[in-house]
């Protein structure tokens, strides 16, 4: 009997023939349409989305006010280039971003199209503002795939044979409390990690030549690792002592994911510059660099920009997204959803020693798998099985982490209680199944 090829399989076969292999496949799902937290695949199957297009649809797939704003703008003008002809949607969005993400008394903003571009520009601005060149970044970091962003990115598999990389980039160990604490409590761990930070002034790079430190307060691709509170405070102090700018990359953790516009707002530690993208535009390519006005204005005229920076369609989509997030109080929803996810997964962790950790802030939650209950023995085999099993059962989910041994939940925050419970049940079944198989 000839087995019928599904439309999804057919689409994948076509993809294989024509799309470069290097464009990775993180999940085998396909899409015909999507709304809220549901994706309908090309075979008409309903899938619950726990991946959110890699953290892009915190406000849900196709929120009505955003779609409406895009339609309306499309009927007016599509492109003039902001460098050439000034338009209000760009300015309005910058005003809104400065209001929700204040960096001191006077905040300025620049818009670009992607997260990696925001990171590139943040570095350029920091270098121009300090007239210094070295940049400090962290192990486990992900900042994008353009040349500087890729250099700052830690994971080697993202950059095979892509060098030479950007010079003057130095890497510090990220204070990953779960993996490396050993028998130490948080205070002792942070004390030791801050010692290493200060030692870097002796054994890594002269802080007098460092323009900026870039950090994700909660690492995204690295496995949803939150930086300890006191470490971030200590890092702020280190930067201030040496005239180094502190850049926080909020591209994955921003826009309500953690229950705030940015995760640094939980810490009460203010960056000098911060970067945003993903859920800010509900799927349209828009990103922002936000910073203290004196720093942002240090960039020479013409040194930052580009043809498509802050496209009017993307600006109105982002403004409508921010308004919608405020109207439905998405930050509050993130906290509620996060509590439900944490409760379910922590309960599961108590039953299985293979689950080493369940951690998160707001609705940015990850579950990490290890061997022998040991944080230093990551289990890399289990996540691909769970992701595959979930896909078969109608749940789209992604892994994360240096060893790909964590699953991260990035569901739209407009997900209904029923959809969330159903998704978590599918996940639970697949976790138990994969644990049995190993
Ligand atoms: C923290 C962080 N920074 C930067 C980026 C790069 O953003 P983009 O893929 O839009 O270039 C990402 C993407 O996943 C990210 O998670």
From TrEMBL:
User: Which InterPro entries does UniProt cross-reference here?
Assistant: Aminotrans_3, Aminotrans_3_PPA_site, Class-III_PLP-dep_AT, PyrdxlP-dep_Trfase, PyrdxlP-dep_Trfase_major, PyrdxlP-dep_Trfase_small
Listed GO MF terms: identical protein binding; pyridoxal phosphate binding; transaminase activity
| Tree of life domain | Bacteria
Signal sequence residues: none
The coenzyme or cofactor needed here is: pyridoxal 5'-phosphate
**Residues spanning the membrane:** none
Q: What is this protein called?
A: 4-aminobutyrate aminotransferase / (S)-3-amino-2-methylpropionate transaminase
Source organism? Maribacter arcticus
């Amino acid at each position: 009997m000839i087995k019928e090829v599904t439309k999804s399989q057919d689409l994948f076969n076509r993809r294989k023939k024509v799309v470069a292999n290097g464009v990775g496949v993180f999940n085998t799902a396909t899409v015909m349409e999507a709304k809220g937290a549901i994706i309908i695949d090309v075979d008409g199957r309903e899938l619950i989305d726990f991946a959110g297009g890699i953290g892009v649809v915190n406000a849900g797939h196709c929120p009505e006010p955003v779609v409406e704003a895009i339609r309306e703008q499309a009927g007016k003008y599509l492109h003039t280039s902001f460098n050439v002809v000034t338009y209000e949607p760009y300015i309005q969005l910058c005003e809104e971003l400065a209001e929700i993400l204040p960096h001191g008394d006077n905040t300025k903003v620049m818009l670009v199209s992607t997260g990696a571009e925001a990171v590139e520009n943040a570095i350029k601005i920091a270098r121009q503002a300090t007239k210094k060149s070295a940049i400090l970044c962290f192990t486990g970091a992900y900042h994008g795939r353009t040349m500087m962003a890729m250099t700052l990115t830690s994971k080697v598999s993202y950059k095979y044979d892509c060098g030479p990389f950007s010079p003057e980039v130095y890497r510090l160990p990220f204070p990953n409390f779960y993996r490396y604490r050993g028998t130490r409590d948080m205070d002792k761990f942070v004390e030791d990690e801050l010692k290493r930070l200060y030692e870097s002034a002796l054994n890594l790079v002269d802080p007098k030549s460092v323009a900026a430190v870039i950090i994700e307060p909660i690492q995204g691709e690295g496995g949803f690792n939150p930086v300890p509170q006191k470490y971030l405070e200590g890092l702020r102090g280190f930067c201030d002592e040496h005239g180094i700018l502190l850049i926080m990359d909020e591209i994955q953790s921003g826009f309500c994911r953690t229950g705030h516009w940015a995760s640094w707002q939980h810490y009460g530690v203010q960056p000098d510059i911060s970067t945003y993208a993903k859920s800010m535009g509900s799927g349209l390519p828009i990103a922002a660099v936000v910073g203290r006005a004196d720093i942002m204005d240090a960039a020479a005229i013409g040194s930052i920009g580009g043809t498509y920076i802050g496209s009017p369609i993307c600006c109105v989509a982002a403004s409508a997204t921010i308004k919608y997030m405020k109207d439905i109080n998405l930050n509050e929803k993130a906290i509620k959803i996060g509590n439900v996810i944490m409760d379910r997964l922590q309960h599961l962790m108590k039953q299985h020693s293979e689950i080493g950790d369940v951690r998160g802030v707001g609705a940015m939650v990850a579950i990490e798998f290890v061997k022998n209950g040991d944080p230093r023995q990551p289990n890399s085999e289990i996540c691909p099985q769970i992701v595959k099993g979930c896909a078969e059962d109608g749940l789209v989910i992604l892994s994360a982490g240096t060893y790909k041994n964590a699953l991260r939940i990035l569901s739209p925050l407009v997900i209904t209680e029923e959809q969330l419970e159903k998704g978590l049940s599918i996940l639970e079944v697949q976790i138990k199944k994969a644990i049995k198989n190993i």
